């Protein structure tokens, strides 16, 4: 098992409101996930720049996963909404020996700069990236 974490979770539960999407693991379908991300972030009343940051982070996470995906695989995305945060978990079946980029890579720096928390793991023939973004300026 390989796992990376850049920030500890605060212990918040993300089972309030869940949206599940599966798309072919092909770059042509990432627009669907970017749109879903923006829509859910807008529902949380994220600022426009926060929404765009999250869209970019989801796109980058998916791009990392597409590189290690098995041919013909589905990219599964789970969006969990709370009052002040959006959790995005993206998962794909992987080719044997798959490895995600190191935490020192540019791609990983993008994820950590654009989200409140980011983690990744490769286990049991699947790779998963988990992003949490908390809304700023909560009243």
Automatic annotation (TrEMBL):
Gene3D superfamilies attached to this UniProt entry: Histidine kinase-like ATPase, C-terminal domain (3.30.565.10)
Source organism per UniProt: Asanoa iriomotensis
Name listed for the protein in its UniProt record: Anti-sigma regulatory factor
Cited InterPro entries: HATPase_C_sf (IPR036890)
């Amino acid at each position: 098992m390989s796992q990376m974490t850049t920030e500890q979770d605060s212990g918040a539960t993300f089972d309030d409101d869940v949206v599940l999407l599966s798309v072919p693991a092909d770059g042509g379908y990432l627009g669907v996930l970017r749109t879903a991300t923006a829509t859910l972030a807008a529902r949380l009343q994220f600022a426009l720049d926060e929404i765009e940051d999250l869209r970019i982070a989801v796109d980058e996470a998916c791009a990392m996963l597409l590189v290690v995906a098995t041919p013909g695989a589905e990219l599964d995305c789970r969006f969990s909404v709370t009052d002040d945060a959006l959790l995005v978990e993206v998962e794909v079946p992987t080719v044997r020996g798959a490895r995600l980029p190191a935490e020192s890579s540019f791609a990983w720096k993008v994820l950590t700069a654009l989200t409140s928390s980011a983690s990744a793991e490769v286990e049991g023939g699947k790779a998963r990236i988990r992003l949490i973004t908390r809304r700023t300026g909560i009243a």
